[in-house]
User: Fold this.
Amino acid sequence: MTVYVDDMRAPYGRMVMCHMMAADLDELHAMAKLIGVQRRWFQGDHYDICLSKRKRAIEAGAEEVSARQLVAMRKARRELTRAALAATEGEQGGGR
Assistant:
């Protein structure tokens, strides 16, 4: 699995932020811990991280992607989750 950081630049107070995400949440949380990002900053499927943490993530092996690529990854993950939930609901409803 791979952790990704995008090239977005969003001002937040005195910082400039970007996103970090991975297909595997355990790997994402492990990277966050490694680069010094607290779990409380987890945003449900990604972390918003400052540029100094982005640099540390890349040094630790994160792959750089465009903001557009990251949005596409998030969209694909949501669609897979919806499909899995629909399949589970179909299986549960089929036995009634």
User: Anything to note?
Assistant: Helices lie at 25-35, 51-59, 67-94. The longest strand covers residues 15-22. The two ends are 39 Å apart (CA to CA).
